[in-house]
DNA sequence: TTCCTTGTTTATAATTATTCTAAAGAAGAT
DNA sequence: ATCTTCTTTAGAATAATTATAAACAAGGAA
């Protein structure tokens, strides 16, 4: 169980002021065992449901983007009408269940090392991500 | 050089009526040597520029979606505010230059076989795609 | 504390990509 | 030609995201 105090420090360390709203969002995002995949809208609704306090949509966007920038969240590339984020920021891959519109983690060892045998002059690799689409 | 006649047949084979607009779009998309990565907006502007004829935006959406459905175009999963398509429908991967917002093909042999050593009950794999993000 | 500066939240407006709609037009078959 | 069906189109509708600017809260200094 992660304490509110830890979130406050986490925020301070990133020079983000620990506001009530941000702490609420931390509780929902980071106070859990398993990785969490979500859209802004999922999160927006969860905050209302779980904390009883309402946070404006703009703040949810601001906060998620701030956390993403600080490396606390990972954006997942799927072609969907909504952007997905992941609380697991380590290098890993995903299944995407197209029908259910649900993401499932794929551990690195379930994919094996990927060696990119081509390089683009003047550019370096930032990330390598595998997306496995699933159908019935 | 692919002829207009071939496009007409291609369209007929997919039970899409060969209209002037669709043929124009075919010329732009398929009458080229290298693979072509584009957004709907790119294509919309190209049609105006290259053919001199204007096609409504709705038709571009309709046609691209029809071609995608028929397997003549591939959708590429990137997190961007616009959806990207690719005229190369074979199984292959991509670099994405984040700064330039540009896609570059990655041949399968430059990535090597990817074996997904995990399965999800009741689901089968539809596609496996690697996205390599590039930075300066 | 109290004051001040700066960062944050908020409702709402603005923007942008995409889809929908309904009417006019073109293709294909008879 | 005529009829049916498919297609195009402009514009409206929708939905995700970003911008705006005023009210508010946090942190520091006096």
Notes on the protein architecture:
In chain A, the strands form two sheets. In chain A, strands 1-3-2 form a three-stranded antiparallel β-sheet. In chain A, 23% of the residues are buried. Helices cover 34% and strands 23% of the residues of chain A. With 136 residues, chain A is an alpha+beta fold. The mean pLDDT of chain A is 94. In chain A, α1 (4-13) packs across α2, α2 packs across α3 (40-51) and α3 packs across α4 (57-69). Chain A folds into two domains: 4-76, Orthogonal Bundle (Arc Repressor Mutant, subunit A), CATH 1.10.10.10; 90-134, no CATH class. The longest helix of chain A is centred in the middle third of the chain and has 13 residues, at 57-69. β6 of chain A pairs antiparallel with β6 of chain B, so a sheet runs across the interface. The first copy, chain A, binds a DNA duplex (30 and 30 nucleotides) through α2 and α4.
Map the helices and strands:
The structure is a homodimer of 136-residue chains.
Chain A: H1 4-13, H2 20-30, E1 37-39, H3 40-51, H4 57-69, E2 74-76, E3 84-86, E4 93-97, E5 102-106, E6 124-135
Parallel strand pairs in A: 4-6
Antiparallel strand pairs in A: 1-3, 2-3, 4-5
Helix pairs in contact in A: 1-2, 2-3, 3-4
The first copy, chain A, binds a DNA duplex (30 and 30 nucleotides) through residues 16-22, 39-41, 55-59, 61-62, 81-83.
């Amino acid at each position: 169980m992660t304490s509110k105090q830890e979130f406050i420090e986490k925020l301070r360390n990133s020079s983000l002021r620990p506001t009530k709203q941000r702490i609420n969002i931390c509780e929902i995002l980071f106070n859990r065992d398993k990785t969490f995949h979500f859209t802004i809208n999922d999160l927006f609704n969860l905050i209302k449901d779980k904390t009883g306090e309402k946070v404006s949509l703009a703040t949810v966007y601001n906060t998620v983007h701030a956390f993403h920038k600080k490396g606390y969240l990972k954006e997942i590339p799927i072609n969907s009408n909504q952007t997905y984020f992941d609380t697991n920021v380590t290098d890993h891959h995903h299944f995407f269940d197209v029908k259910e519109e649900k993401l499932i983690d794929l551990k690195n060892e379930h994919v094996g090392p990927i060696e990119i045998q081509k390089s683009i002059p003047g550019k370096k690799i930032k990330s390598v991500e595998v997306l496995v689409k699933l159908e019935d």
